[in-house]
TrEMBL record:
<dbReference type="InterPro" id="IPR037171">
    <property type="entry name" value="NagB/RpiA_transferase-like"/>
</dbReference>
<protein>
    <submittedName>
        <fullName>Lactate utilization protein C</fullName>
    </submittedName>
</protein>
<dbReference type="InterPro" id="IPR024185">
    <property type="entry name" value="FTHF_cligase-like_sf"/>
</dbReference>
<feature type="domain" description="LUD">
    <location>
        <begin position="94"/>
        <end position="190"/>
    </location>
</feature>
<dbReference type="InterPro" id="IPR003741">
    <property type="entry name" value="LUD_dom"/>
</dbReference>
<dbReference type="Pfam" id="PF02589">
    <property type="entry name" value="LUD_dom"/>
</dbReference>
C-alpha cells in the first residue's frame, strides 16, 4: 500500500460513522459595531504605516496642502471635489511628486481603501507612480468588512485595493517601501 493510500484510508476511517449534516458556522464574532467603524478604519490605516487625518470639510484644502508637504508637481484627477492646484493627468507620471484622489470606499477591518477609478480617482497608473498618494474619504464610505465592500462595488469596474504604502520585504525580511507604488499614503477622513 502506498503512503497516499494509507493516508486516505486513515481519513476514511476517521470519518466512518461521523455526522455529515451541514450546519451554518456562526460568524457574529467578525462583525464590527457601526459606531466603531470609522475609529477601527483609522486605527488599521495607521497600523499599515499610512498617515491619517480626520477633519471637517471646510478644513480640507488646508489639510490636503499640509499632507502634500513639499510636493511641487501634483496630479488631481477630474471630478475631485476640492479645488486644488494640479493637473488631471500626464503622459509622463514619473515627473510628478504626488497624486490626490477620492476613493470608492474604505474597509474598517483591514484599513483598506478601494478605488474603482470613477470621478475624482483617475486611472490606475496615477495612484501607482508618484511617490505620495493623498486619498480623501467620507465617513459614510467606510464599511465594516470585505463582504460589505464587495456588495457595494461594481464587479464590472476596475478596482485597486490599497492597504498602506507600497511595501515588500526581501529574503532577510528588510522592508522596502515604494517598490511597486507610492512610498507614502495619507488618508484624510471627512464627515
Amino acid at each position: 500500500m502506498s503512503a497516499r493510500d494509507e493516508i486516505l484510508a486513515a481519513v476514511r476511517g476517521a470519518l466512518h460513522g461521523a455526522d455529515r449534516t451541514e450546519r451554518p458556522v456562526p460568524r457574529g464574532y467578525r462583525s464590527v459595531a457601526a459606531s466603531n467603524v470609522v475609529d477601527l478604519f483609522a486605527e488599521r490605516v495607521v497600523d499599515y504605516r499610512a498617515d491619517l487625518t480626520r477633519c471637517g470639510r471646510d478644513e480640507l484644502p488646508g489639510v490636503i496642502s499640509k499632507a502634500l508637504g513639499p510636493a511641487r508637481k501634483v496630479l488631481v484627477p477630474q471630478g475631485f471635489p476640492v479645488d486644488i492646484e494640479g493637473v488631471p493627468d500626464a503622459p509622463d507620471l514619473d515627473d510628478y511628486d504626488a497624486v490626490v484622489t477620492t476613493a470608492a470606499l474604505g474597509i474598517a477591518t483591514t484599513g483598506t481603501i478601494v478605488l474603482d477609478h470613477g470621478e475624482g480617482q483617475g486611472r490606475r497608473a496615477l495612484t501607482l507612480v508618484p511617490d505620495k498618494h493623498v486619498c480623501v474619504l467620507s465617513e459614510d464610505q467606510i464599511v465594516p468588512g470585505v463582504p460589505q465592500a464587495i456588495a457595494r462595488l461594481d464587479p464590472a469596474r476596475p478596482q485597486t485595493w490599497i492597504s498602506g504604502p507600497s511595501a515588500t520585504s526581501d529574503i532577510e525580511l528588510d522592508r522596502v517601501e515604494g517598490v511597486h507604488g507610492p512610498r507614502a499614503l495619507h488618508v484624510i477622513v471627512v464627515p
